[in-house]
């Protein structure tokens, strides 16, 4: 059987059962089951927010509910959800409507002194050469520089609870990975993680 987007060599024949069934990327049979549908697995607890496999518009209320569900320490600031962790602060912004977008910004609580700014820039350049996300940069503040990351997810078509969970978790975990590499590089005296 040939992949639908690759050309076949001449003489290769498509199996009969494949000929009668055109490829449909929206076929429910192609969607992997959720945790609640796999025998012996725990029920999908994310269903509590909007329902299983329901694509719903991105709203601040959904994000708030998700953060509450995770049990994270958080507060609201100017309609943004600010998640407080030990060394990192994460701000989640939601643009609702036709151009719905989920913005996740993270930064280290402690500003970096100006003396290590060049080392941090080198680490950021190295990160960007080898990783797609998050976007990392320095923001000047009075005390030095904030090391900040961001990741944006367009959601104009809405998203399921699993997609919302994935978007927020990937943004936070990839930011943590960058901060870990940066911390190790600075402790070792090298800017190259």
Give the helix/strand layout.
Elements: H1 16-19, H2 60-70, E1 74-77, E2 80-84, E3 88-95, E4 101-108, H3 117-130, E5 135-141, E6 144-154, H4 161-188
Antiparallel strand pairs: 1-2, 2-3, 3-4, 4-6, 5-6
Helix pairs in contact: 3-4
User: How many strand segments?
Assistant: 6
H and E string: HHEEEEHEEH
Mean pLDDT: 79
Structural class: alpha+beta
Beta percentage is 15-25%
Rg over C-alpha atoms, rounded to the nearest angstrom: 22 Å
Question: What's the main sheet like?
Answer: 6 strands, antiparallel
Strand line-up of the largest beta sheet: 1-2-3-4-6-5
How far apart the termini lie comes to 44 Å
Proportion of residues in helical segments: 25-40%
Descriptive notes:
This protein has 193 residues and is α+β, with helices and mostly antiparallel strands. Helices cover 30% and strands 22% of the residues. It is built from 4 helices and 6 strands, in the order H-H-E-E-E-E-H-E-E-H. It has a 6-stranded antiparallel beta sheet with strand order 1-2-3-4-6-5. A hairpin with a 2-residue loop joins strand 1 (74-77) and strand 2. The two termini are 44 Å apart. Residues 1-11 and 30-44 have low confidence and may be disordered.
